[in-house]
Specification:
Layout (H helix, E strand, L loop, with lengths): L13 E5 L2 H4 L40 H15 L3 E5 L2 H4 L10 H16 L3 E5 L7 H7 L6 H17 L5 E3 L11 H5 L10 H25 L4 E7 L3 E3 L4 H23 L4 H9 L8 H7 L5 E5 L4 E3 L7 E3 L4 E3 L15 H15 L3 E5 L9 E2 L5 E2 L3 H19 L4 E7 L19 E3 L11 E3 L1 H11 L11
Parallel strand pairs: 1-2, 1-14, 2-3, 3-4, 4-5, 5-7, 6-8, 7-11, 11-14
Antiparallel strand pairs: 9-10, 12-13, 15-16
Helix pairs in contact: 2-4, 6-8, 8-11, 12-13
The structure holds 6-O-phosphono-beta-D-glucopyranose.
Length: 477
C-alpha cells in the first residue's frame, strides 16, 4: 500500500453520498403514502404537471430503494461511507399533509433505514423537504403561497425531530431553497411554469419558507440542543463574461439570487439589496412580528450543492443556455457535460471561499457529481461494471479544489456526492442521466432488472474515503 500521509482532509471529515426520497424510493402509493408534487412531475421540472401521473412514470418505482435499502446501505458501507444524506417523504408520514396523526407505517420505514445506517456506523443527515410536498397541499392550499403551510410543516418537522432526536444530528430544512425562483412547482408546489409565476406570490411563498425554516431551527434546538441544523442552496457562482463594469454588476446581481437565501438563513433578516428589489418591483411581503422573530433563528451551518458555474453579462443579445434548472451565458473556457452543465472544479474552491468569507459558518458540500450516460460492460471476472473514468476525473478535480479551499481556511464539515447509486434525475426525470458509484439496471422505458453493479468509481471513492482524501493526490488505482 502506498503511503498517503502527505495531504489529507480534516479528521472526522464526513464522506458520503446524498439521496432524495422521490428520486430513489419508488413505492409511490405503498403503506399509506399518497401522491406528492414529485409524482406529479413525470416529465421533469420543465414538463407538464400531470395529475394523476401516467401509469408507468419512472419515479413510481424509481430504483425501489424502499424495498432494497438494506442491499444499498451495505454497498455504501463497503465504500466506507461516514454519512448518508436522505430525505423524508412528507407524504409517507402525513399522506395529505394536513392530518393530525402521523402514518405509523411511513415512520417505520425511516426507523428501519436509520437503524440500518447506524448499524454500519453511517451517520444520517436528513433533508426535511427535498423538492416534494404532499400533492393535496399543493392542490388544496396552493402550496407555499399559503401561510397555513408553516403550521403543517411545523407539525411534520416536530414529529420527525421527536422520533429521531437521539439518532440524527444533522438536519437540512429545505433542499436547494433558491430553486423555487426557477422551478416554482418543484420548489414550492406552486402551479406555474418557471417564467410565469407572479413575483409577488413567489416571494411571499419564499417568505413562508424562510419563516418555516427559522421555526424548524428554533424547535429543533429546543428538542435537542446538539442538533446541527443547516440551510441548503443550489450554488452556481457567476463570473463576469468580460471586465466591463456592467458585466461585473450583473454578476453581483445574479450571485445575489442565490446569496439572498443564504443571507437570510445566516443573518436572520432581509438584506438591503432585496428590500430595494421589492420596492422597485412593487412587491409587498407580509411580514408579521412573529415572522421576524422566527427568522432570527439562524442556522448552524450552510450547505450547498455545486455542479457548475455560470457567466453573467449585461449584454442581453448574448444567447443563454440551460444549466442546473436555470439558464446563463456560456463560459468559453469551460467544457460541458452531455446536458450542458459547465464543468468547473475551480469554481468550487471559489464558491467555498465566497461563502466562508461572507458568513464564517461551517460549510458542507451536500451535492456534487457528474450526470453521464453509462455503459454496463463485462468486467473480465465474470461480472459487469462501468468504466466511468470521466466521473472519476470530474470528482477528483472537484475534491482537490475542496482540499485547496480547506487550505485557504474554509471550515468544511463534509462531502456527500449526489446520487451515490443511480437515481431518477430531477430536472428531466430520466434514468439515462446517472451519477452513481453503483449502477442500477433500470432504463428510461421502465425496463430493467433493478440489479446493482459496482462501477470503477466505486473502488476509486472507497480508496478516497479510506485514505481520508490523501489518495486524490496519488492513487494506487
Ligand atoms: C439538485 C437536486 O438540483 O441536483 C437533486 O437537489 C438533483 O434532486 C441533482 O437530482 C441533480 O440534478 P439532475 O437534474 O441531474 O437530477
Amino acid at each position: 500500500m502506498k503511503d498517503f500521509s502527505e495531504k489529507a482532509f480534516p479528521k472526522n471529515f464526513l464522506w458520503g453520498g446524498a439521496l432524495a426520497a422521490s428520486q430513489c424510493e419508488g413505492a409511490a402509493l405503498e403503506d399509506g403514502k399518497k401522491w406528492t408534487t414529485g409524482d406529479a412531475m413525470p416529465y421533469g421540472v420543465f414538463g407538464d404537471i400531470v395529475i394523476p401521473p401516467p401509469d408507468n412514470y419512472l419515479k413510481k418505482e424509481a430504483i425501489d430503494f424502499y424495498h432494497r435499502y438494506k442491499e444499498d446501505v451495505k454497498l455504501f458501507a463497503e465504500m466506507g461511507f461516514k454519512m448518508l444524506r436522505i430525505s423524508i417523504s412528507w407524504a409517507r408520514i402525513f399522506p395529505n399533509g394536513d392530518e393530525e396523526e402521523p402514518n405509523e407505517k411511513g415512520l417505520q420505514f425511516y426507523d428501519n433505514l436509520i437503524d440500518e445506517l447506524t448499524k454500519y456506523g453511517i451517520e444520517p443527515m436528513i433533508t426535511l423537504v427535498h423538492f416534494e410536498i404532499p400533492l393535496h397541499l399543493a392542490l388544496e392550499y396552493g402550496g407555499w403561497t399559503n401561510r397555513k403551510m408553516i403550521g403543517f410543516y411545523k407539525h411534520f418537522v416536530e414529529t420527525i425531530y421527536t422520533r429521531y432526536k437521539d439518532k440524527v444530528r444533522y438536519w437540512l430544512t429545505f433542499n436547494e431553497i433558491n430553486v423555487i425562483l426557477d422551478a416554482p412547482f418543484n420548489g414550492a408546489g406552486i402551479q406555474a411554469k418557471p417564467d410565469e409565476a407572479d413575483k409577488q406570490v413567489l416571494y411571499q411563498a419564499i417568505h413562508h419558507q424562510f419563516v418555516a425554516s427559522g421555526l424548524a431551527t428554533k424547535i429543533g434546538h429546543g428538542i435537542n440542543p446538539d442538533f446541527k441544523i443547516g440551510c441548503m442552496v443550489a450554488n452556481s457562482p457567476h463570473y463576469p463574461l468580460t471586465p466591463d463594469p456592467d458585466d461585473m454588476l450583473e454578476t453581483m446581481k445574479r450571485d445575489r439570487e442565490t446569496l439572498f437565501f443564504a443571507d437570510v438563513h445566516a443573518r436572520g433578516n432581509y438584506p438591503g439589496y432585496m428590500k430595494r428589489y421589492f420596492r422597485e418591483n412593487n412587491i409587498q411581503i407580509e411580514i408579521t412580528e412573529e415572522d421576524a422573530e422566527l427568522m432570527k433563528h439562524t442556522v448552524d451551518f450552510i450547505s450547498f450543492s455545486y455542479y457548475m458555474s455560470y457567466c453573467a453579462t449585461a449584454d442581453e443579445s448574448k444567447e443563454k443556455e440551460l444549466g442546473n434548472v436555470k439558464s446563463a451565458v456560456k463560459n468559453p473556457y469551460l467544457e460541458s457535460s452531455d446536458w450542458g452543465w459547465q464543468i468547473d472544479p475551480k469554481g468550487l474552491r471559489y464558491a467555498l471561499n465566497q461563502f466562508y468569507d461572507r458568513y464564517q459558518l461551517p460549510l458542507f458540500i451536500v451535492e456534487n457529481g457528474l450526470g453521464a450516460q453509462d455503459e454496463l460492460v463485462l468486467d473480465g471476472a465474470g461480472g459487469y461494471t462501468v468504466n466511468d473514468d470521466y466521473r472519476i476525473t470530474y470528482l477528483k478535480a472537484h475534491l482537490q479544489q475542496a482540499y485547496e479551499a480547506i487550505q485557504d481556511g474554509v471550515e468544511l464539515l463534509g462531502y456527500t456526492s449526489w446520487g451515490p447509486i443511480d437515481v431518477v434525475s430531477n430536472s428531466i426525470s430520466e434514468m439515462k442521466k446517472r451519477y452513481g458509484y453503483i449502477y442500477v439496471d433500470k432504463h428510461n422505458d421502465g425496463s430493467g432488472s433493478l440489479e446493482r453493479y459496482r462501477k470503477k468509481s466505486f473502488y476509486w471513492y472507497k480508496e478516497v474515503i479510506s485514505t481520508n482524501g490523501a489518495s486524490l493526490f496519488g492513487s494506487c488505482l
